[in-house]
Amino acid sequence: MDLLAQWFGSPDFVACWGGVPMSRDQVAQMYVGRRRPHVESYLVPAQCSGTPVGYAQYWHAGVAEGGVDMVLGPQARGRGLGPDAACALLAHLGGNLGWRRVTVDPLRENLRAVRAWEKAGFRKVSNEADDLLMEFSSSAVRRE
Ligand SMILES: CC(C)(COP(=O)(O)OP(=O)(O)OC[C@H]1O[C@@H](n2cnc3c(N)ncnc32)[C@H](O)[C@@H]1OP(=O)(O)O)[C@@H](O)C(=O)NCCC(=O)NCCS
Question: Measured in angstroms, how far is the CA atom of residue 113 from the centroid of ligand 1?
Answer without folding.
Answer: 4
